[in-house]
Amino acid sequence: MQDGMPPIVCTTDGTTALAHDHSASHGPSGYQLALTVPAAVVKAAVFPVDDVEGLVTAINAANTNGESNEIVLKPGTYTLRAPNNNIDGPNGLPSITGVITISTGTVEGTNPPIVERSTESRAIIERSTASTVLPFRIFHVSSRGALGLINVIVTGGRRVPQGGGLFNRGRIVLITGIPHIKGLVPHRGTYVS
Fold first, then answer.
1. What is the pTM of this model?
2. What is the b/e burial string over 47-84, where b = at least 16 CB atoms within 10 angstroms of the residue's CB?
3. pLDDT at residue 5 above 50?
């Protein structure tokens, strides 16, 4: 190593980074390495959504693109008025067959998009309470699907026959933020097959 030059280190993603000399505060051997370690090397698609039609379109696209996807809902209420399909009973949204995270927030830019998740406001996905609306659950996760929900409220779904909020045949359902999923029958909002 040349005198006065920090060592170059190779990171796990093949790029290089410089080690910083902190000998003034950490003593003569005070090099502190700054490594870049990617959380996961996956191709991801981001879908900003602000209405029910956009949510249905985004789920359909995410199911077929072969990527890890994030659907970012603008804070507000997304009211479903009719079943979308009848897989394991009627469902308000397309069955999840891809890898999808649905969160509340905003998206800035396009290359790459920057997702700002909201912690103060939530998106609510609900079944309409109008008397003319047929009973249906909100989400269905197929055996090929994986769904993550971050700061999203799911409410008003009806058990048909299981899972008013969510029927899960998938590998993973990650839910953060509360309240999570509510059906109209206490403690029966989620059904795992």
1. 0.71
2. bbbeebebbbebbeebbeeebbbbbbbbeeebbbeebb
3. no
* Residue extents of the structural domains in the chain: 1-39, 44-192
Residues 98-122: tens digit of each pLDDT: 999 999 988 987 778 888 887 788 8
Instruction: Using the predicted structure, report yes or no on whether residue 137 has a pLDDT greater than 90.
Output: yes
Tokens of 92: 């308000």
Q: Rounded to the nearest 5 degrees, what angle is found at the Cα of 130, between the Cα atoms of 92 and 183? A: 50
Tens digits of per-residue pLDDT, 57-97? 999 999 999 999 999 999 999 999 999 999 999 999 999 99
Q: 36: which residues sit within 8 A by CB, 6+ positions away? A: 11, 12, 13, 15, 17
